[in-house]
Model the fold of this input.
Amino acid sequence: EPEVTQTPSHQVTQMGQEVILRCVPISNHLYFYWYRQILGQKVEFLVSFYNNEISEKSEIFDDQFSVERPDGSNFTLKIRSTKLEDSAMYFCASTLTGVGGTEAFFGQGTRLTVV
Amino acid sequence: AQSVTQPDIHITVSEGASLELRCNYSYGATPYLFWYVQSPGQGLQLLLKYFSGDTLVQGIKGFEAEFKRSQSSFNLRKPSVHWSDAAEYFCAVGLKAAGNKLTFGGGTRVLVKP
Done:
């Protein structure tokens, strides 16, 4: 069965450092997403990406965040200068046709710990 | 404002007993509806989805959910719970008019007693 893969599974970084979270979506999917889940809280939408550009972003997704699909297979989330409150589980997801068309497949997540 | 509510934060159920998890949404139109399960240390796995048609949908692992438009609800059920069903369950909704994304409820953690 096709799956979304994320690396690393766990990353510890110092406050102020840059981190890049990596995702390989399902190969024929067209819509890509990042969500995050702060410990004990709900899963929150960060950003959606379609046709090589951001299609929507949440209030959380400020100038410290960026996304990129550098080579047609990887989908990355960069946090330029991490803060303690960025500590969370980050999920990548992909869909073939967007919400309502087909289901969203989620990766296993990257647990980011900012110290 | 659009929202998804899962009223029960924790539910404890005995193995073999039935389970029902509640989900209510507040949207201007009928959204697309999903239930995901997250086992400890794992990602989000889709249990079932509702787009249109029959309001009772069957999913994997013996789960089913019923969409009730009049109550803006999409409750998840399982007739007989197994110990492996212990996990966190998330209801999620999507609405194209509200952007091409999912909005999640707060989750319900299910504990299964032997």
